[in-house]
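Good morning,

Attaching, inline, the backbone tokens for the sequence recovery test we're adding to the shared suite. The designed sequence is right after.
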């Protein structure tokens, strides 16, 4: 719409209209090529090798917690080490879902997470599930975000070697 309005304001300049049409045509061709490239790409069904897929499919393979990587019983809803929701259906069951949601919200105010704009926006939006408590949560989240960024752990330094003597 904006392009049409711009073209109407300078209708007397033929070169401007031709240039505008060329830009639009290039944009359409570029979008068409992008769509063709995305559709033609072979889908990767597994992000790992066949050997890893076979190891995962074994019955004796224990599932791992996505947060602390500790093995746990496949029937558990929450990790016994860190409390993260790990059950296959935990987020679909009404009662455990509340605890899973609480764990996620707690992570935003007390835990360490990757600070990207999408993650931060997700924490703000997720707080709207409980609109009465959302302002309190937002204050706590902002307090956490404005605090100094977490220091990265320093690699362990080896002890100075002494000559044997």
């Amino acid at each position: 719409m904006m392009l049409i309005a711009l073209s109407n304001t300078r209708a007397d300049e033929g070169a401007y209209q031709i240039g505008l049409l060329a830009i639009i045509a290039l944009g359409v061709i570029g979008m068409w090529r992008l769509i063709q490239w995305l559709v033609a790409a072979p889908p990767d069904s597994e992000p790992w090798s066949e050997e890893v897929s076979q190891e995962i499919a074994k019955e004796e393979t224990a599932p791992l917690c996505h947060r602390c990587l500790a093995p746990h019983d496949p029937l558990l809803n929450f990790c016994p080490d860190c409390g993260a929701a790990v059950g296959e259906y935990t987020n679909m069951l009404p009662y455990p879902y509340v605890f899973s949601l609480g764990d996620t919200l707690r992570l935003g105010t007390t835990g360490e997470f990757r600070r990207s704009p999408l993650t931060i926006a997700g924490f703000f939006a997720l707080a709207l599930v409980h609109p009465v408590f959302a302002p309190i949560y937002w204050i706590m989240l902002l307090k956490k975000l404005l605090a100094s960024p977490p220091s990265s752990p320093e690699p362990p330094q080896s002890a100075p070697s002494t000559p044997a003597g």
